[in-house]
Amino acid sequence: MDANPILVEQTRGDWVENRHRGAFVVVDATGTIIATAGDIDRAIFPRSAIKSMQALAMVTSGAIDKFALTPEQLALSCASHQGEDFHVSGVTDFLSHIGLAPTDLECGAHAPTFGPARDALRARHAEPTALHNNCSGKHSGMLSVARALGVDTHDYVERDHPVQKAVRTAIETVTGTTLSVDRCGRDGCSIPTWAAPLRNFAQGFARMATGEGLPADMAGAAQRIFDAATAHPQLVAGTDHIDTLVMRAFKGRVMQKGGAEGVQCGAIRDKGWGYALKIDDGNMQASQLAIANLLLRFAGPDAEAAEVLHRFAGQKVKNVRKFEVGEMRPTSVLAG
């Protein structure tokens, strides 16, 4: 198997210190490739980059209509939030809205990923709870699926629970591929994560953007979920995060979501294109740089969006004294 191409380099002084290999693909809903590099048929774990696909189980289960879920709640269902106060209150209200409590969450607790929110929690001498977990919004959405199906919420994170079966079916429907138990792991928040080829995830996002090839109810739900996430990008990630900044700057034209270990996925909605990218060594900064360059190349950004993307498209490396000691930069592979 050939190695994937180098997408990003990091220098120190005038010497390349690190090289980050990876693969990416931009594709339309029919599977026609717009641009590609690397092995896009290698199965990868998408991690949190496909939370919007997982959220589709809320329509197939009837949860969206049963609980009259708001756009803000749908956005939180797609979120890898930073544990800011508005995220915590939003998830708390979401759980109350479906008749549950924070103790029903099975995602585990961790400190807020946003520094000021983490510092504020420590200043109060308070311990983080499951509400601060970046996946608590997604888990609230999954709990709404359990409630809509009328099944026990206990162990809803397990692969054989009806909730996860509904999530798996939704992912298979939009990606057009069968998810195999021999390529299934447990994600950081304890739900199953299924490996599949990069091209299938990209095509799934194109199909969600256009509705092409999807059942009518799922096509409508996909548009509703994308509309909610792009209208409330601060709920999907948070202050100064690339996902929030990009979706806000593109004003609904781009659905963007990162996942752990160097994964980036999304859709250029007005072109009907989906994209997926994976940095082999899992470096998140390299993945953000790479996706910023791809969006500059393919998404047709206006001046505001271009300014945001350029913040991530090439980055200076600084030491603790703020001396510039190198840079992280794209290779010619990303330039096309």
In short:
This protein is an alpha+beta fold. The protein has helices spanning 51-54, 57-60, 63-66, 71-77, 85-97, 115-123, 136-149, 162-175, 198-210, 216-231, 233-236, 242-250, 284-298, 303-313, 332-335, and strands at 6-12, 15-28, 33-37, 43-44, 184-186, 192-194, 196-197, 254-259, 263-268, 273-279, 315-318, 324-330.
Structure write-up:
Helix content is 42%, strand content 20%. It is an alpha+beta fold and 336 residues long. The chain has one domain: Beta-lactamase. Strands 1, 2, 3, 8, 9, 10, 11 and 12 form an eight-stranded antiparallel β-sheet that branches. A two-stranded antiparallel ribbon has the order 4-7. The longest helix has 16 residues, at 216-231. The mean pLDDT is 97.
The total number of structural domains is: 1
Radius of gyration (Å): 19 Å
What order do the SSEs take from the amino end to the carboxyl end, as H and E? EEEEHHHHHHHHEEEHHHHEEEHHEEH
* Class inferred from helices and paired strands: alpha+beta
* Top CATH class: Alpha Beta
Anisotropy-based shape: globular
By DSSP (H or I, 4+ residues per run), the number of helices equals 15
